[in-house]
Structure formats: C-alpha cells, structure tokens
Specification:
The complex is a heterodimer of chains A (163) and B (474). With 163 residues, chain A is mainly alpha-helical. Chain A has one domain. Chain A is 58% helix and 6% strand. Chain A contains seven helices and three strands; from the N terminus they run ααββαβαααα. Chain A has helices at residues 3-15, 24-39, 58-72, 85-93, 103-121, 130-139, 146-158; strands spanning 49-51, 54-56, 81-83. In chain A, β1 (49-51) and β2 form a beta hairpin. In chain A, α1 crosses α4 (85-93), α5 crosses α7 (146-158) and α6 (130-139) crosses α7. Chain B is globular. With 474 residues, chain B is of the alpha+beta class. In chain B, α8 crosses α9 (163-174). In chain B, 50% of the residues are buried. In chain B, a hairpin with a 3-residue loop joins β1 and β2. Helix content of chain B is 47%, strand content 12%. The chains are: A mainly alpha (163), B alpha+beta (474). Chains A and B meet through α1, α2, β1, α3 and β3 of A and β3, α9, α10 and α20 of B. β3 of chain A pairs parallel with β3 (130-132) of chain B.
C-alpha cells in the first residue's frame, strides 16, 4: 500500500467502515465517507469534484480498489501504523453518520450529506438555503426536498462539519 | 494542425506542434498576467531533461496547445439545438483549457506529491510506532491551487472578465460546478485535450516516437450524442487504441525512466525531509501553500524555487539531505541497485515478484545499510504507480462496464458502434484490444542508492550483488 492508502485504511478503521467496492452502492459509501471525514478535519489529501451523485474523487476509487484487492489476499500494510490522536478522534466523531445496517439507505443519506456540504463549502449556493440547495440537487434528478436538506444541515452542524 | 479562428481572433502564436494558435482578446490578456507567465518557468517534464536533454518545454507551451485542441473540439458542437454550446460557454471552455494547469507547483507533480512519499525509514524495519499524521493538511493538488489563483489574483480576474466569470472558469477546470458536468468532462475524460497535447509534445521534445498519435483522425472522428457524451466513431478504433498504447509506452519509456524517476524520487524525499523539519521557509502544510499562491510571491514559485531549496540543503541540511541534494545538484542520479517489473492482472497484484522484493527489502535493508555504513535515508525504496492501458480499465472488467455510473466511466474512452445513439466504453467492444488488455497493469519496483564515496563502483557492485535475489526470497 502507498502511504496515502495506509492513511485511508486507518481512517476507514476508525469509522468502522469495512473496505467494500463490489457494487456502486459500496463505492458511493466509500466516496462519501472519505469526503465527510475530510470535511471533519481528517486530512488525507483527496480532492473531490462534482458529478451526478455529488462529490467524487477518482483517486479514492482507485485507492479503494487497491486496498480491497490487497485485503482479499490478506495483505494489510496498515498493520503497525496508527492514526494521530486528533484525527482519530475526529473520525470517531462522525462514526454515527456512516453507520447503518441498511446499505441503500446509508448510501442515499451519505450522498445527501456530502452533496449539501460540497455545495456550501465550494460556494455553489448562496448561504445555506435549503430551498436553493434542493433546487440544485433536483437539477440532477434527486428527490431530496427542502426538509431533507434541513435535516442534513442539522446533522452536519451537530457533528461539527458545518458552522 | 492549427486552432480554429472561430471569430474574434486578435493574436496568433505559432506553436511547434499545432501551428497557428488564434487567441482572443481575453486570452491574450490572460497570457500577459504574472500568474500565467510563471508557467514559462515550470518545466512540463519535471526533471525529464536529466535523461532527455531537449525535454525542457514548459507548462506555458502545453497550456497553449491545450487551448488549440479545445478550439478544434468546440467546432464539433453546434451553436443551436439540444447539443449546442453557447458563445459564452465556448469562451469559458477556451479559457478553462488555457488555465487548466495554472496551479502547477515547481517541477509540476514532483513537489505536489510529497505527501504521498514514504521516507525509507518509514517503510523499513519495525513499523509498530509509525503514526500517520492526518492533522496536518497536505499540499493541495494543482487543480485546487489553480482555482485559488484564478479567483484571487486581481489582474487575472480582470483579464477573464470579472470575479463571477473567473469563478465560472475555475469551476469548469476544477469541476466544482454543479450545473453541466459534460462540459467540464471535455477537459477531464480519458480522451481529453490535456493528454492529447502532452503525449505529442513530450514525445517530440524527448525525441522518442512513442507518444505520436493520429490526432487529426481522432478529432475528425469525434461525435457528440444526444446526451452530450463524447466518443469516437468505430472506424477510429485503431487510432483510439494506439492513443492508449502511446500513453502506456510514454510512461514506461519517459515518465518512469529509471534515471529520471530515481533523481525525482531523491528530490521528492529531500523536499519532504525539508518540509517536515520546517527548514528554509518551505510551506509547512496545505494552508501555507494556499497562502503563498494567493500572494505576489506566486511569481517566484517556479522550478527555481525548488532549485534554491536544493542548493541550501546541499550546504545546510543534515547528512542525508546533503547527499540527496548533491546528487540532484550535480546530476549524479541515484544508482539503481535492483528493479523488478511486473505485468499482471489488477486483481492479482497483491502477490508478485515485485511485492516479494519490496517485502524482503523492508526486512533486510536496515541491516544492509548498517553493514555498508551508508545512512538508511540514502537508499530509495520506491515503486511507480501501477500503469494501466485504460486508466480505470484495470479495475473494470468488460462485463462490469455497463454497470458503471457516469463518474466511474469518466476515464474510459467511448466509441459509437452500429446504430446505437449513445457511445459505449472501449473495454466493452469485444474485438478491441482493450477488451483483453485493459485489465492488465504494469508496475516497477525499484531500489536505488545515493552514494558518492571514492569506492562508489565497488560499493554499488557489492550492493547489487547482495540484493539481486531479494525478489526470490520467501
């Protein structure tokens, strides 16, 4: 594993998120969880761009595939490494956001949370208006309404990801 | 090939690759800014000139070339109807092409990537105490830096046409804009103009034939679907395949050339060491980099910036820093002790001769260094990034390609086949070479030493002989 892949694996461990990349849903959860961890202040150095399902980073996809391939063959270079204490705390702090037994529901929730944060953080919407954010997401065929956005904003604020 | 005048052309620049490039007023003003002129002092091929002496071309020339190709591609899009691109969007896309590399660091990707570099002592021996520091913000990638430059520097903002427009242009090349992903995709997809330009430009500058592609035929074969997907006509399949092979061979022969890669790895490790101990006012983290590029000091953030750090490290650094710095300064590239090249299917990558070599080195290198009295940091244990024929192909089997979401297909070349109105991925076409080859990836695992003692030849020969069988160890 490359150094950044080791960092990614350590963060996913703190989030209690197994490295799964088999389905698009798995990969979406991975993408959005990494996005949210970085938004919470865990710096892995991935740069996300906007696409149809919100923020997306090809390097996360690639590193996720590499880690999953190695783990499948029982290779885990992150063993013996630890995440710095402050980052580990931050990652643990958002564990509640990325935990859910229903994978489909989790994927949808994470897509919403990450998209809302991205649109605000990159100043793609003025202020934090739920209606305007909903309008942007509807342009991408998403069925999130203003109430969903309000709940997402509340969760992001509660976890210290948005001021 | 020359770029299309497309109306309103005010100036012409002659390019060695594309011929006449017609520039509009705004583009000319962009060229005149200090931020853009900085690109004249950043070499496109990092330290490639240590191997290929003529490879001294710059990000400045490449940026102009990218604009030329964008101009050609824009001619394909109608100005009316569902697939139209309006006048303002065309102008923005042209400016985005011109500015897509404005955020490059000195020596391009070399300095940008120092956070991904593992120092030898971090990967060798006992790692039980190793800590990954995710509290320090890493250096942002050049796209993020570019976004900052385009939206912060007053003269550049004025040249582009105001703050709002500068943000629109930055959003296009950084793909931040939540509006029309297909537009920015022109800049980023596998068949993107950035790659079309750099493969040819780098190939010609280096003097090797591997990057030559049939660019005119490819451009003339491009089609746009109703959903604004860009792909090539099926008749251009050989040209598309050759384009992917050209990229593959350019990486093997030029970008990952053992001499260039060795000296660049020495520089990456040196810069990380300097940064980690806060020497010579090198930006300590990503925030400091952003602070630097927002300031007038941006103009001096060029290859010379790194050259000065190397010069200071060669005199004022610790023993390892001095050794690394001198090898760069005096062009005494690290000596390759052993290399293992691996070509395998991506899903079989975890165990191979390369990873065995690497594992053995992790266990044995410390003892070897002590035996020869050479500091561990002067050994460079590294590997190239896995190189795939189709960037995403190695992880995407043909039967999976249909199930990919648009963002995951980003880098797969699309081909229009039969009467299908939408193109399909190259890896899905059964008679394509990529159908078979895309799942393979190549990687080189390398061990170098930086050593300049009077007994250099004997020491290097002994080291080579001692590590020769490391790929065979259990």
């Amino acid at each position: 594993m490359e150094r950044r892949q080791i960092g990614l694996k350590l963060v996913l461990d703190q989030l209690d998120l197994p490295v799964r990349v088999k389905t698009f849903e798995d990969r979406l959860i991975l993408q959005k969880a990494v996005y949210l961890a970085q938004a919470a202040g865990v710096h892995l150095g991935y740069y996300f761009r906007w696409y149809l399902h919100g923020p997306y980073c090809p390097s996360v996809a690639e590193d996720g595939f590499c880690i999953a391939t190695e783990l499948a063959q029982e290779v885990d270079d992150s063993k013996g490494w630890s995440l710095d204490a402050a980052s580990a705390e931050k990652a643990k702090g958002i564990r509640g956001l990325v935990t859910c037994d229903d994978r489909a529901a989790l994927a949808k929730r994470l897509e919403l949370l990450a998209s809302v944060h991205f649109l605000i953080d990159r100043k793609q919407v003025p202020g934090q208006s739920p209606e305007k954010i909903a309008a942007v997401l509807q342009r991408f065929g998403k069925d999130f309404n203003a109430d969903d956005i309000r709940r997402a904003l509340g969760e992001l604020r509660n976890h210290g990801i948005l001021p | 090939m020359a770029s299309s005048p497309e109306g309103e052309a005010r100036k012409i620049i002659v390019d060695s690759l594309h011929g006449d490039i017609h520039l509009r007023e705004r583009e000319w003003r962009i060229l005149d800014t200090a931020a853009f002129q900085r690109l004249r002092r950043i070499k496109q091929l990092q330290m490639g000139q240590v191997t290929y002496p003529n490879a001294t071309h710059t990000r400045f020339a490449h940026s102009l070339g990218t604009l030329a190709i964008m101009a050609s591609i824009l001619e394909l899009f109608p100005t009316k109807g569902p697939r139209k691109i309006g006048k303002r969007q065309r102008e923005n896309l042209r400016m985005a092409a011109l500015l897509h590399d404005i955020g490059h660091y000195p020596y391009s990707h070399l300095m940008e990537g120092i956070d991904k570099v593992a120092l030898t002592e971090e990967i060798v021996g006992d790692v039980r105490t190793r800590s990954f520091d995710a509290a320090r913000s890493p250096y942002p990638d050049h796209v993020k830096v570019g976004q900052e430059i385009v939206t912060r520097h007053r003269d550049l903002i004025d040249a582009i046409g105001g703050r709002k427009r500068a943000k629109q242009v930055a959003d296009l090349f950084s793909r931040s804009r939540a509006a029309d992903p297909q537009l920015s995709k022109l800049l980023h997809s596998s068949f993107d103009m950035d790659r079309v330009d750099y493969l040819q430009r780098d190939s010609r500058a280096a003097g090797v034939p591997y990057g030559d592609i049939d660019v005119n035929y490819l451009l003339n074969s491009l089609r746009i679907s109703e959903k604004r997907m860009v792909g090539v006509a099926e008749k251009a399949l050989p040209a598309a395949e050759q384009y992917l092979f050209a990229r593959f061979f350019m990486y093997k022969a030029v970008y990952y050339h053992k001499t260039t890669f060795g000296i660049e790895e020495a520089c990456r490790q040196l810069l990380r060491r300097i940064r980690d101990v806060n020497l010579f006012k090198m930006p300590r983290d990503g925030e400091a980099v952003l602070g630097l590029v927002r300031s007038p000091d941006l103009a001096s953030f060029t290859d010379d910036y790194v050259d000065r750090l190397v010069q200071r490290a060669s005199k004022e650094g610790d023993e390892v820093m001095q050794a690394l710095a001198r090898c760069i300064e005096k062009r005494r590239p690290p000596k390759l002790l052993h290399e293992v090249q691996v070509l395998k299917k991506a899903e079989n990558q975890a165990f191979n001769r390369g990873t065995v070599f690497f594992s053995t080195a992790k266990r044995s290198l410390k003892a070897l260094a002590e035996k020869h009295g050479i500091p561990l940091g002067q050994f460079l244990l590294c590997y190239t990034k896995p190189l795939k024929l189709e960037p995403r192909g190695a992880f995407v089997r043909a039967e999976q390609a249909r199930g990919l979401e648009p963002e995951e297909e980003d880098e797969l070349i699309k081909v229009f086949t039969g009467d299908d109105p939408e193109p399909k991925s190259l890896v899905e076409i059964e008679h394509s070479l990529m159908y078979v080859c895309a799942s393979y990836q190549w990687q080189a695992f390398r061990l170098y030493v930086v050593y300049e003692g009077p007994d250099k030849k004997e020491v290097v020969d002994r080291l080579r002989s001692e590590v020769r069988n490391w790929a065979e160890c259990k």
